[in-house]
Amino acid sequence: MKNYAKISYFVFLAVIVFFLACNRSKSSKDNETILKGSVSIFVDETLTPIIEDQVAVFESKYDAKIKLISKSEAETVNSLFNEKASIAILARNLTTEELKIFDQRKIIPKVTIFGTDAIALISNKNNKDTIIALKDVINFMQGKSVPSIKGLVFDNPNSSTVRYINSLAGLKAIPEKGVFSFKTNDEVIKYVSENDGMIGIVGVNWLSQPMPNMQIYVEKVNALNVKGLTSDNSFSPSQNNIAEGKYPLARDLYIINCQGYSGLGMGFASFVAGDIGQRVILKSGLLPVRIPGRNITIRNKIENDKK
Known about the structure:
- By secondary structure, the protein is of the alpha/beta class.
- The chain has helices spanning about 1-30, 50-60, 75-80, 95-105, 135-140, 160-170, 185-195, 205-210, 215-220, 240-245, 265-275, 275-285, and strands at about 35-45, 65-70, 85-90, 110-125, 130-135, 150-155, 180, 200-205, 220-225, 225, 235, 250-255, 285-290.
- It has 12 helices and 13 strands.
- The strands form 2 sheets. Strands 1, 2, 3, 4, 6, 7, 8, 9, 12 and 13 form a 10-stranded mixed β-sheet that branches. The chain has a 3-stranded mixed β-sheet with strand order 5-10-11.
- The N and C termini lie far apart (about 105 Å).
């Protein structure tokens, strides 16, 4: 009888804990609106600088707190699948196969394209050649000898830059010979600034928006002009060249919102794709999905204050 009483007590306690947890979760969700509350967002590490800027401006205007979690692309995507995150920012859209996973869960991700950035190829400033052919990079990835390249340096074996270049080279994994990876874009920039002949592959906004402690290393590298696969001309990863479609390593940026309700994910995506968010992107040197308008005041006559 005593054992039965103990079991009943623990069952009752478990039920109480369950309902309290549910109510707490529901309360947290109810307190969140598109412009108020708190949320965690996973972001592709190569995009961190521009998203940090967006979050800073968003939080300064609204009663919201956004926790950014920078991970590799593979980890960021997986965070959506294992439900660690409901919002992710990527340098690609979800694939058909990935969308099927959400369809099985009765979830329709809201996808917002908000800009275009570029993958930059960098070298030590001691290197005289400031032009690199994309074909040479692909050949090197495929194990062919390229005298002008001693090695390629990536940020992370699971990063979006690795996936992008692997896709161009028709590979599924990083080659073991002559290709290296660290953990962050900052480490790549620092390594290339100290080693001649190495080509680093980073998100361009790590060059246009370096942290103060990285400025000294950024000043020691060049963003190379890249010659595309179908052109004899080479182009730098400038905002203008990205806008005109000349730079061959440009990529669109996406906010993937799987919250399933009108929360901060929707509010933040609308903000980033809106006028203020697009101005932040324009100022950063990346390409906004729409160019913010400018108000020009025209006066019919100029009054002369001096009489």
